[in-house]
Amino acid sequence: MCATTGILRRLDAEELEGVLAHEMSHVAHHDVVVMTIASFLGVLAGLLTRFAFYAGMFGGGGRRNDREDNGAIMVVVIMLVSALVYAISFLLIRVLSRYRELAADRAGALLTGRPSALASALQKVTGAMGQIPTRDLRSAEAFNAFFFTPALANGFSLSSLFSTHPSLERRLQQLAAISRELGQGR
Amino acid sequence: MGFLDTVLGRSKPVKADLDDLFALPSAALTLEAALEFKPTGLGSVCFKAAEGAAFARTQADVQQLLDAFQAGGGPKVEVSKDAFGYTWLLVRHDPADVPGLVTDLHAINSGLQDAGFGPQLLCSLISFAHDDGRRLALVYLYKRGSFYPFVPLGDAQKRDNALEIEVQGALANDMKVEPDLTRWFPVWGAPGL
């Protein structure tokens, strides 16, 4: 586990504690082992796809004119099935990774007892907190008068299917829920 | 807002629903329980007085409105103007009586709206204070129809962003908090803070 000088500069002590607790939770949950084992079959399927592809391209040269082409069809079928397995396992592994990240967030928050410190660290690191303006409302009133509509509906994006970490919003939502739980003394 | 609306440029601006203000009493309870910020009993309404020839008439109209309020048993209101040219109406109440303060703010806002100052209303805010002296304001923006927290730090025009995010998390269930962080404009030096 390493901390860059950049993060040491940006975050204050509590936030840094939250981030380190999150990372230590990954270690405690043996996440590296879990992800390796989980992706094992997927990687195997991916390799099979590749080998089948190359075998089909380069290996069948001599035999093609002599016998039935059952061999070639089999190779294509193997390739397609392996590709499908690889694609599905890729998406499922991403889902697993996002779940483990949320679990590490939760464990880290409960370990330090300060979920909002982790929340503000996340926002500092992603630059989201920099969005909160310092310009006075009264000088920005003309801006408020316009109603800007986002081009796409909020929330869905293709990259969210493929990402290893859940979206910042989702993580903050969970941390806020933990904060509320702690506030209610449960 | 549908796809067609986005493409063709139609938009439905949010109609400010003054009844949103009535989420404040439960929010005040949550704030006190979760973050130990107690209400100060101060609330204020901000609107932009019209410019030019209508300026003096608007001021007189507002004053008449408020005198009518007070005569009818309404709240005591202090009028002030700030450096940006906006007019602030400050209401004082007993700190323990948040519902009363909210009712008064609602009455003032409705009165201003009915008198035709609706589009000129900017925001309403009520303030809270921590025992260690920190102040927090919950600002309601009419044009967005949502609340956001504002925690000024000292005199240097700095805000405590981390605490504001925390307040957002705490109040997410009680009221409509503005989800877009770029809309959390500060109100430096607002009366009532």
Give a brief rundown of this model.
The complex is a heterodimer of chains A (186) and B (193). Chain A is mainly α and 186 residues long.
Question: What attributes characterize this protein structure?
Answer:
heterodimer, A: 186 residues, mainly alpha, B: alpha+beta, Alpha-Beta Plaits, six-stranded antiparallel sheet, 5 helices
What does this protein structure show overall?
The complex is a heterodimer of chains A (about 190) and B (about 190). Chain A has one domain (about 10-130, about 155-185). With about 190 residues, chain A is mainly alpha-helical. The mean pLDDT of chain A is about 80. Chain A has helices spanning about 5-10, 15-30, 30-60, 70-110, 115-125, 140-145, 160, 170-185. In chain A, helix 4 (about 70-110) runs parallel beside helix 8. Chain A is elongated, with a radius of gyration of 25 Å. Helices cover about 70% and strands about 0% of the residues of chain A. Helices cover about 35% and strands about 25% of the residues of chain B. Chain B has a six-stranded antiparallel β-sheet with strand order 2-3-1-4-5-6. In chain B, strands 7-8 form a two-stranded antiparallel sheet. The longest helix of chain B is centred in the middle third of the chain and has 20 residues, at about 100-115. Chain B is of the alpha+beta class and about 190 residues long. In chain B, a hairpin with a 4-residue loop joins strand 4 and strand 5 (about 135-140). Chain B has one domain (about 15-185): 2-Layer Sandwich (Alpha-Beta Plaits), CATH 3.30.70. Chain B is built from five helices and eight strands; from the N terminus they run H-H-E-H-E-E-H-E-E-E-E-E-H. Chain B has helices at about 5-10, 25-35, 55-70, 100-115, 160-170; strands spanning about 35-50, 75-80, 85-90, 120-130, 135-140, 145-150, 150-155, 160. Classes of the chains: A mainly alpha (about 190), B alpha+beta (about 190). The interface between A and B is large, with 30 and 41 residues.
